[in-house]
Amino acid sequence: MSDTPPPPPSATLSPLPPRTIKVASYNIHKGVGTDRKRDPARILKVLEEIDADIVALQEADLRFGTRASVLPPFLIQNHTDYTAVPLDVQHDSMGWHGNAILVKDSVTVEHHDIIHMPCLEPRGVVTATLEIGGASISIYGMHLDLSGLWRVRQARAIAALAEEAREHRPTVLMGDLNEWRAQAGCFREFSRNFSILDTGPSFHAARPVGRLDRIMHCERLIAKDCGVHRSALATIASDHLPVWAEFTLGQRASE
Fold it and tell me: What dotted CATH number matches 20-254?
């Protein structure tokens, strides 16, 4: 008879809840609020209220001159836990045709790029592959044209690139689509392979009626919640309200 005691029963561990990823899109109107005052600090305070892991910004650079960043780097560094994805386009600019991506310091930038689009007026798309919570995710930030015809062309080009990305990793597209109609052609282009969240009306901030700001995602992500960020500060910081969404990774995320 052996004197060796039987091994203790293995402990039953409860599975950890899936990692939640929060994203946001915000047209900051070059930092000019509904009170016609330019105040970058207000924008950063609104971002602090939202507390998203990843933020796509539109109109993040001044339009003329050196097209300098609306949000001074020292303010971001000293007053937030965000970092701007380095797009390596212009020395003083944060974005590409005003589009920029901010990420929390806990997020690792694996790759970034800018994408030229067919356009009537200067437009572009910014994209980044990010590592968050042990998973890689592709982000596309955009600000589409005022012309319906050009919006469709731009949506088709962006959707094709994002379709390729979603074959490799979870993919989110977000930005100001400049589209008032629910059945518009640009939505048909995006909806072929992506779900379009109805976060709610975000424009005009003082009295929002237009669903211009949108967040879209592939099937590798499960949308848990979404909405428009409404606060006293957000209603005056820009003419758009920020939109946000929370996701968990779907079954295909790690395939």
Answer: 3.60.10.10
Query: Parallel, antiparallel, or unpaired: how do β-strands 135-143 and 171-176 relate?
Result: parallel
C-alpha span between 88 and 95 (Å, rounded): 9
Confidence of residue 10 (pLDDT cuts 50, 70, 90): very low
SS (HEC) of 180-235: CCCCCHHHHHHHCCCEEECCCCCECCCCCCECCEEEEECCCEEEEEEEECCCCCHH
Q: How far apart are CA 57 and CA 242, in angstroms?
A: 9
What is the separation of C-alpha 246 from the centre of its chain, rounded to a whole number of angstroms? 11
| pTM, two decimal places | 0.89
Dihedral sign, Cα of residue 245, residue 246, residue 251, residue 255: positive
Q: Domain extents for the chain?
A: 20-254
Helix (H, G, I), strand (E, B) or coil at 29: helix
State the Cα–Cα distance between residues 129 and 109, nearest whole angstrom. Answer: 6
Q: What is the distance between the alpha carbons of residues 218 and 196, in angstroms, rounded to a whole number?
A: 9
